[in-house]
UniProtKB/TrEMBL annotation:
Species for this entry: Acaromyces ingoldii
Keywords annotated in UniProt: Antiport, Calcium, Calcium transport, Ion transport, Membrane, Transmembrane, Transmembrane helix, Transport, Vacuole
A Pfam family this chain is assigned to: Na_Ca_ex
Region of interest (Disordered), residue spans: 1-37
InterPro entries: CaH_exchang, CAX-like, NaCa_Exmemb, NCX_ion-bd_dom_sf
The protein, known as: Vacuolar calcium ion transporter
Membrane topology recorded in Swiss-Prot or TrEMBL: Multi-pass membrane protein
Length: 426
């Protein structure tokens, strides 16, 4: 039987739009009495809220890995166990973050709810990035963020196009909103490419004017180049943060109508958590995730060396897939229900948050704590990112999608994953 508009998600739980939009979601019209015996329908109490959060999906079974991840760190288990257990622990934690964010958004209204989604939608990626930054693993920071963007716009969006194409020959979505999101995404991509162009042009100029001796001189005086990269990156980050704030105003206030789902899809939402319980859940889960992420990042070097797994593959492919687990499920499910606006909002919107919000914020945080994080990514990563954003923009410009376009996006992601497996660690 084909799913109807009221069909609940797995375990009776729907997901929120991670792009920062307060979008319609579908819930049962009342609470099962066994879940909330003391609260009337639509009026959950704190206990029932916590109960629902932890029992709303079968994915939460994986929460068993959270204490195991802690134990692996304190008992000094081998690095591969510390990495694997904390890796698996982050999957359900990402799910809980998405659910708690959605519930908190219901009572705060579209604007505040959207800002809350913008803050917590990529919480796992942000936490992993902050932990790696404070540990001085700047390449892990860059790789995980680039990988998150690629995972969202290639794997998540590609699977969504495929899922939508399985039920309809062609899916449609709001063309103007998609073009606006694509343009913002391109801005973030170009800003990442500019420092790489600066680095490359400095070396090329040296070769043309003084041959290899001049290039050797530049290498010996790398501090000058590093200073230039830091100046460009920090200045550009300030600009991007301002653009992201303007984008939130555009999306949530002045042009919110562009991002709204069709009226026929809207249904009255019944909260499953109290606002206090939802916010408390957000804070608690974020705190726990920060510890698991800390243990995970700390085990990357030893695991990569012991088992021959490239750090580039871990940072760019494995970590983002875990962090984007919630977005992936939500986007594919919405696309299968012919709600492509929500699917694109989740995948492309989440990438915008990373490119225009999280990356520059981490550069500025690195500036504050004395870590020289820049927007200069390796040339190979920059080329892959630019090619991916160009392909996505090409496919969403017409406001239509099909399974073939989805297959193209997933194929490019597979090629990128193969390439990152053999990319040398630097």
């Amino acid at each position: 039987m084909a799913p109807s508009e009221n069909t609940p998600l797995v375990g009776g739980n729907n997901h929120s739009d991670q792009s920062g939009n307060a979008l319609p979601m579908h819930r049962p019209t009342s609470f099962p009495s066994r879940l909330n015996p003391n609260a009337p329908p639509g009026h959950p109490n704190f206990v029932s809220s916590v109960y629902w959060l932890f029992t709303s999906s079968w994915v939460n079974i994986l929460l068993l890995f959270v204490p195991l991840g802690f134990a692996s760190e304190f008992l000094h288990w081998p690095a591969v166990w510390r990495f694997s257990l904390n890796f698996l622990a982050i999957v359900p934690l990402a799910k809980l973050l998405g659910d708690a964010t959605e519930q908190a958004s219901l009572k705060l209204g579209q604007t505040l709810g959207g800002l809350l989604n913008a803050t917590f939608g990529n919480a796992v990626e942000l936490i992993v990035g902050i932990v790696a930054l404070l540990q001085g693993q700047l390449r892990i920071v860059q790789q995980s963020l680039i990988g998150s963007i690629l995972s969202n716009i290639l794997l998540v969006l590609g699977c969504s196009f495929v899922a939508g194409g399985l039920f309809k020959s062609e899916s449609t979505f709001q063309q103007t909103a998609a073009q606006a999101s694509g343009s913002i995404m391109m801005l973030g991509c170009i800003t990442v490419a500019i420092p790489a162009a600066y680095q490359g042009s400095s070396r090329m100029s040296a070769l043309l004017t003084g041959g290899f001796e001049a290039l050797e001189k530049i290498n010996k005086h790398a501090d000058e180049t590093e200073h230039g990269l830091l100046f460009i990156s920090r200045g550009a980050s300030l600009i991007l943060v301002a653009v992201y704030a303007l984008y939130l105003i555009f999306q949530l206030r002045t042009h919110a109508f562009l991002y709204e789902a069709e009226e026929a899809d809207e249904e009255e939402e019944v909260p499953m958590m109290t606002p206090v319980a939802a916010v408390a859940g957000l804070l608690a889960v974020t705190l726990v995730t920060s510890f698991n992420a800390d243990y995970l990042v700390g085990a990357i070097d030893e695991t990569a060396q012991e088992y021959g797994i490239p750090k580039a593959f871990i940072g760019t492919i494995l970590l983002p897939v875990v962090g984007n687990a919630t977005e992936h499920f939500t986007s594919v499910w919405m696309a299968a229900k012919n709600k492509m606006e929500i699917a694109i909002g989740v995948s492309v919107g989440s990438s915008i948050q990373i490119a225009v919000g999280v990356i520059p914020s981490l550069v500025l945080l690195g500036w504050a704590v004395g870590q020289p994080l820049t927007l200069y990514f390796q040339s190979f990563e920059t080329v892959v990112l630019v090619a991916s954003v160009v392909l996505v923009n090409t496919l969403i410009q017409d406001g239509r999608s099909n399974y073939m376009e989805g297959a193209m996006l997933v194929s490019l992601y597979a090629v990128a994953a193969l390439s990152f497996w053999v990319e040398p660690d630097v």
